[in-house]
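so ive been stuck on this for like two days lol. basically i have the seq below and the ligand is zinc ion, smiles is in there too. i just want the complex predicted, nothing fancy, no docking runs or whatever. if the output looks off dont worry ill sanity check it later, just need somthing to start from for the group meeting slides
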Amino acid sequence: MTPKFKIGDEVFKARYDKVETFVTCPDCGGTRYVRVLLHDDTEIRVECGCCNRGGYQPSTGQIKQYQYTTFASPYTVTGISTRSDNISYELNNFGSGMYWTGDESELFPTIVEAMEAGEKKKAAHEAEENKRLMAKTKDAKSWAWNAAYHRNCIKKAEQDIEYHRSKVQIFASKAKEKAA
Ligand SMILES: [Zn+2]
């Protein structure tokens, strides 16, 4: 392999920075709730599982995504290292101890070519990461489980209320007896 660049050449290398963004949840459309139809045709409204981050946090109606911006910066080749399978370059090593490195495949003679390659790499990475974030959702089964759980809690709470109310009524009538 013959190196594409020589010491002293100006080369361009692209990199990307990510910025956190939010998109509307595709399941609840940002309303934070979805309707679930149970086996007995009972329709209930439950917190959306897709945009729920778990724990006691409520659903947000939004899903985190990342947006990447590509940059390309110029460097000067200050060293070349050739191996059988790869050529890498030392960049901007002017003796201050701070320098960069780059493989031949990621260095370009013009900013346009560097940006083009960077954009391609960025698009693939962005798509992959956002697909992963979008897939990090709960399935319908867990919503139904949540719904059943909350319905049971409501039933239990209603029974408790009934019990406590009956106690209060007893005390109330006793108090009335005393007062009478
Ligand atoms: Zn949602």
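Residues 25, 27-28, 48, 50-51, 59, 61 surround zinc ion (CB under 6 Å). Helices lie at 111-135, 140-179.
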